[in-house]
Amino acid sequence: MSHHIYIPILIISTLLSFTSARTTVFINESTPILLLPSSSSAVGEMSGSCPSPDPRLNYRPTIGIVSHPGDGASGRLSNATNASYIAASYVKFVESAGARVVPIIYNEPVEIIQTKLNLVNGVLFTGGWSKTGLYFDVIEEVFNQVLKKNDAGEHFPLLAICLGFELVTMIVSKNNNILEAFSASDQASTLQFMNNINIEETVFQRFPPELVAKLSTECLVMQNHKYGISPETFQKTKELCSFFKVLTTSTDENNKVYVSTAQSERYPVTAVQWHPEKNAFEWGSSVIPHSDNAIQVTQHVANYFVSEARKSFNRPPNDEVLKNLIYNYSPTYCGTAGKGYDEVYIFTDNEKMARL
Ligand SMILES: *[C@@H]1O[C@H](CO)[C@@H](O)[C@H](O)[C@H]1NC(C)=O
Ligand SMILES: *[C@@H]1O[C@H](CO)[C@@H](O)[C@H](O)[C@H]1NC(C)=O
Ligand SMILES: *[C@@H]1O[C@H](CO)[C@@H](O)[C@H](O)[C@H]1NC(C)=O
Fold first, then answer.
1. Quick one: CA dihedral 31, 37, 40, 43, positive or negative?
2. Confidence of residue 7 (pLDDT cuts 50, 70, 90)
3. What pLDDT, in 10s, does the model give residues 166-202?
4. What three-state secondary structure class fits 238?
5. DSSP strand E in the chain: where?
6. In the chain, where are the structural domains located?
7. Which of 74, 77, 79, 344 to mutate to test the pocket of ligand 2 (most atoms within 8 A of CB)?
8. Which parts of 267-317 fold into alpha helices (H)?
9. Could you tell me the pTM of the whole model?
10. Probe target for ligand 3 pocket from 78, 79, 81, 82, with the most ligand atoms within 8 Å of CB
């Protein structure tokens, strides 16, 4: 360890004494670590000028997350008829990559949902169980808005996780019975990449090659679903394979194969049947992978998604954003209520009233 401590001291003292001479500094006799002073980037960094930000990118992105019916803990935390929730792990996931969150409360009036969509730079659909009624209709409407914004020239990404994957599959295929039964409740799994897949410009683009390789041999992703779609059904459904490219499949407890990652080539829309947010932020199941590699999976997916949101030009008035951020709500710890989530944001009419 001790030689690491000397290196910065060496760099600083060398800089002090040699800044005006063209000098090469070596860690040891053979390895140059710093070139001074001409074309080296180390000198540029030391001069105190920061490169100007890329004007094509939005460095203050916000993400809308659609709430799911219920309290996330089967009535243990709230029995309010209109309660809906967002597990805090999705919020932390987005925040960890440098974006803020606006909750899109699914049973708010349509005009408010519309207003909130104009405050964000991308949308996340969470896991859950609801596939019918108002929730389905709202997800369908938001999905169509995402496509519309992109068609109008705005880069507006969507990340659909677990239930989100299933709902998007139903919406794109225009077939609400397209899903099949799978046994992948509370299961860590691998991801098997399709043959000859190019991961450039996909959710896996930022993964180091070693991590991509490990995804197919180590159980680095968390599954928790009873439905899914087989690659066969996917490929024979024209609407699905013209919209999505299948990137990976996974195998359930009965060795049945299902599509686990799909990405649109035309839109910045990514659907994952697995839970990238859980590895770093959920502890309720002993099966959730928490290894160094598993945490990197969470981080790379979050970084990919938020980097897509930075390409959105939407820059709404700051005070409108502030009024709607998730920071206006407090999460409830529910690890002791024992329902899989550690923390949830619960939205009820009462809370909405309290904010007015
Ligand atoms: C200097 O660094 C090089 C490359 O890191 C290494 O191969 C070499 O063994 C080092 N030499 C000494 C004397 O530590
Ligand atoms: C919700 O209702 C159930 C069943 O009546 C009850 O056991 C539970 O304590 C209630 N939860 C809350 C937070 O009041
Ligand atoms: C549920 O919420 C909607 C919209 O906020 C409201 O119109 C309705 O009255 C609420 N119902 C109950 C039972 O609170």
1. positive
2. very low
3. 999 999 999 999 999 999 999 999 999 999 999 999 9
4. helix
5. 23-26, 32-36, 62-66, 68-69, 84-87, 100-104, 123-125, 158-161, 180-189, 192-193, 221-228, 244-251, 257-264, 269-272, 332-333, 343-347
6. 2-46, 62-319
7. 79
8. 278-281, 292-309
9. 0.83
10. 82
Q: Which ligand is nearest to the CA of 351?
A: 3
Q: Among 115, 72, 113, which residue's Cα sits nearest to residue 90?
A: 72
CATH of range 62-319; options 3.30.70.890, 3.40.50.2300, 3.40.50.880, 3.40.309.10: 3.40.50.880
Residue whose pair of structure tokens reads 């990919």 in the numeric block: 304
Catalytic: 162? Answer: yes
Number of CB atoms found within 10 A of residue 315's CB: 11
Cβ of residue 79 lying under 6 Å from some atom of ligand 2: yes
The answer to whether residue 275 is catalytic is yes
Q: Does 350 contact ligand 3 (Cβ within 6 A)?
A: no
| Ligand (nearest to CA of 106) | 3
pLDDT at 88 over 50: yes
72 touches 85 (CB < 8 A):
yes
CB-defined site of ligand 1, < 6 Å: 28-31
Cα–Cα dist 345/208, whole Å:
33
